[in-house]
Design brief:
Number of helices: 6
Shape: globular
Length: 784
Amino acid sequence: MLLLGYLSFLPVSLMSQPTTTLIGKVLDDATNYPLIGANIVVENNTNLAAVSDANGDFRIANIPVGRINIQVSYIGYETVTMENVWAMAGKTLQMEIPLAESLTNLTEIVVRSSDKSSVSVNELVTNSVNQLQVEEVVQYAGTLGDVARMAQNYAGVSGATDDRNDVIVRGNAPFTVLWRVEGVDIPSPNHWATLGTTGGPISLLNTNNLRTSDFLTGAFPSEYGNAVGAVFDLKLRNGNPCQYEFLGQIGFNGFEVGAEGPIKGIGKNASFVANYRYSTLGLVNKLGLDFGTGFAVPQYQDLNFKINIPTAKKGTFSLWGLSGKSDIFFEAEPDAQNFYSSGDENLRSGTNSTIIGLNHLYFFNEQLSSSVALLGSYTNNQTDIAEFQAATNGERLFFPTFISTNQQQKYSLNWTLNYKVNAKHRLKVGVVHEQYVVDVRDSIFTDDNNWFAELDYQGNTSLSRLFAHWNVKLSEQLTMDLGWNTQYFGLNQSFSFEPRWGMKYQLTPTTQFNLAYGYHSQMQPLPIYFSKDYEATPAENSANGQLDFMKSHHFVLGYQQQFGKGYLLKLEAYYQLLNGVASDPTDRDFSILNFGADFGFPNRVGLRNIGTGNNYGLELTLKKQLDRGFYFLLTGSLFESTYDGAQNQIRNTYYNGNYVTNCLVGKEFSLGRHLLLQLNGRFTYAGSRRFTPIDLERSIAEGEEVRFDDQPFSASLAPYLRPDLKIGLVYNTPKQNTHSFSIDFQNFIGRENELFKEYDEAEQRILTTIQRGFFPDVRYQVLF
């Protein structure tokens, strides 16, 4: 009925054909140097063609809206064909098209868009990578427009929870994930993010500001450091340098307005793009829909922007930023049901985040370029808890029991030199320095009626890295990557030297093998270094500050086969050995590997680098690129994730779900020249997170929860099962505007997935908290 009602408002006779414009730049994929004289053609229409100018720029106007194929060719380079590119009215299509130089010019090599799932934006990555396509983040069911939730569809990745967007990659804790934007590492880009974590309930990133990016899951090249789990290497798009365009949007993620266009008076092709968003969850709450916060209403707002300024002789400058503010208050209610607080406490939590980056790209010549990135960030998280004490004269009294104020300023300098020796050899070297200014203060009201500072540190420290990477094409079939990364942690003089190696062998144009090894290291979560315990000795309270890096050996073997029209089969086997894991010598079942999917870390002191971990598994991906309006993505993962807290006893980690399967499928139906109907489905079935079983008999006897501490993480929650169905309409108007409307019915069967189990003292039984359940995400967008 909703679809019919929407269609009834559309004009019956619309004869004019909406069109759009394609603008872009053709680049050498190794150096990003512009290619002059490249041929760009919209396939099946020789009248829609262009040649790139001295800056590599091109422009093709009057392209009919809908799916189009674009072919780009240049002498001495592999020809690229991008298929089923989505062209919309009211939105100029912008593209950066990198071409790879061929070792021989005797034959033409055509790389079609069906390959794009098997290659990376960063051409130095040989394995364990997925391209994050912005169109897919928006189109796929169940993503909420969040790149982190989108990544949970890839092989080897799991989430298995609705309350946060934490990413578990190959059994690794979420804090092992590195976030990078425009070539520089950033703090967690999420609302209500806390120090040391990488996830949160709602993303700070706006997909309307992103372009095609990489998500790496293991044995990554030497330019990536301080991470042992995975890397989000995100790119921001430039604004339209030719004309002004605007966006209006409303949905689960908020009310949103956006603008982009040229900046006049400061050079050719200078542009800006900015999007501002404000929370709509208050409205959703009033409609009676539950998103896991009970009666509390999350309030947040954020801004994403980028300013791009190319110059004729001084290189290209870009200024970009992410900024957000969030706040929520959980008022104690006896019947309150939510993911984050109990019914007998008042809890307020808020976060302010600002990340500003400045980049400069300069070409000394066609072979040598310099890239400099500066970053400054500020994050502040405030949490206060007051517990119910008594009721007097009808008034409920609360007493403060926890106060937390954590602030971090981070300043970074990244300088990279990129030298393309010739078609066979390429060198990339760089230096990175990060300065941390930290002010952490967590105070807890103790059993002896005193306040104790669990965290109390004001100071600064630094992390410095140096890396080098050599890429060599030994033949048209065989590519080798060699590199190393070193890093030094100023807080305690920790040092690590990390060799990296990768190989890619193209057996046939459609068959590829890859093999990689990487040695990686990472700081322990930053709050861990400053933890204190009022019952501990001075030596135990100072021990954490001397913790060395956590280190990891990655081994990956991969195979991929393209077949048919747009089909890709990919298999990867991996093994990861972790050592130097922060563990407790007095509690050898404790390991930091079991934490990070929450808003903080345990207050443990006296930790040492004595723990180990093992992750190994097999991953399968079967994908059909969008063709004739149809696509699908099938991923499956079998894995084991274990740890040893230094007592020579192997245990399951908290994240050892053992298996994850995802199936996504979609179909587009053209309803005339102006209207497109999109149907998208998603089904996830995965092993859930583990927990330590509750000893019910002892809990009843002692009047409080008691767990079988000698059986850590030996039990699992019920399997996570969730089907999503998304229905969308796209209407391109004759006035060159595009209206998009969609409803994403998430968990439309109302499956009661388990979140955690706890002992209820009043009822003397084990209670299971259920996740969000059915949730409809409604979204409307207009481009003009």
